[in-house]
Structure prediction request, 476 residues.
Amino acid sequence: MYTSLEHYIDGAWVKPSGSKSQEVMNPAKNTSLGELGHVSKGDLDKALAAVDKGFKTWRKVSAFERGKILRKAAELVRARADDIARVLTLEQGKVVAEAKIEVLAAADIIDWYSGEGQRAYGRIIPARADGVRNMVILEPIGPVAGFSPWNFPVTQAVRKIAAALAAGCSIIIKCPEETPGSPIGLIRAFHDAGVPAGVINLVYGVPAEISEYLIPHPIIRKISFTGSVPVGKHLNALAASHMKRATMELGGHSPVLIFDDIDPEGVATMMGAMKFRNAGQVCVSPTRFFVHEKVYDKFVGKFADIAKNLKVGDGLDPESKMGPLANPRRVNAIEAFVADAQDKGAKVAAGGKRIGNQGNFFQPTVLTDLPENARIMNEEPFGPVAVMLRFKETDDVLTRANKLPYGLASYAFTKDAKTATKIADALESGMVTINHFGIALPETPFGGVKDSGFGHEGGIEGLQVYMQAKFVSHLG
Prediction:
């Protein structure tokens, strides 16, 4: 009931010729789902030749016709959402309801780019002389190398694929080896929708070997990476050394500012759902909760109750509200974060321990009284741990919120318009949402600043990074 693990090169599903392979594991049971073969350099050469050929074909297809094909792909993803979501849960762990939301969101992303690509207009610039026409023409940048992560294996891949195709580019997408089945289901929808051979190519293998082969290659003109800060910095340096454009969507450590003029228990209920979504394995997950001292006890008490009562279990169990972590590495990492915080004086208000000895389960966790030198105060936890911190003055909390090199997403809750405006202006992050969770929609730009990366996915900005402007001045 899992899926066939093949690569997709030049319009065909193929078994890779590499000598390496790895097991794909079910994180709820630590059992094998299947064997994933790794790509060889010969396979990559075939993918490079295909993506080059595919670009030369696809760029000549009108934006209107490209949009029609993309819309058909979106329809197929929706029709197959239950099957793709089940595979996603088997290999990644998130509860199946969240998995289906992710798959349906992927269809929305494809739909949005199908229309936006049809509206990617250039412009006319008034000339200084009679008979001269100054034009700016937007052209696809060329073949793309995309690298997507395991926490959202469908939506993170589709943000790169749909934007690239809508712009007229072709792509080699390296999806995560730990969660290969759900991206395969996604690519099948594009194939069945009629995307020409070579326009999309899907490969798996050793990440460093693939990136260090593809990025310098002269056929590749654009890089898009979603992942950790250290890997992103390395790949960006590699891309820069070969004058390749890059989009980097890296890690975060999102602050949440809770002021004293809101309903603390209502906000705790909303943000508890956001914190423990996908077991906290979300780059924009709220992690550092700065709570005004007047509402601190009520907010933390409610949040801890939510954590204690959240049912954790196999993602396929309809009763489960949080699934396992994606791999044993995450369990060990979260356990180390909690132990370090406790050693430095932090208190555990909820959770704090792994669950059982089968599967990668960890309790939803709430920490209080943390010192500034605790690791979790300075490093992205990427797991089901919320850190609770008191504040009194607005200027002080803004300084603390902006302290880290991360700058992806920030959240705030206040009824005061003046305070909201001050927060929006002062927070050093690529995305700020106030009084609700309002990010990651297809039509809005998604991206960070500082060490959280640069460039955008989503919105018109997400399409523009796959296009280049050509200025044409014509006399006569």
User: Anything to note?
Assistant: The chain is about 40% helix and 20% strand. The two ends are 65 Å apart (CA to CA).
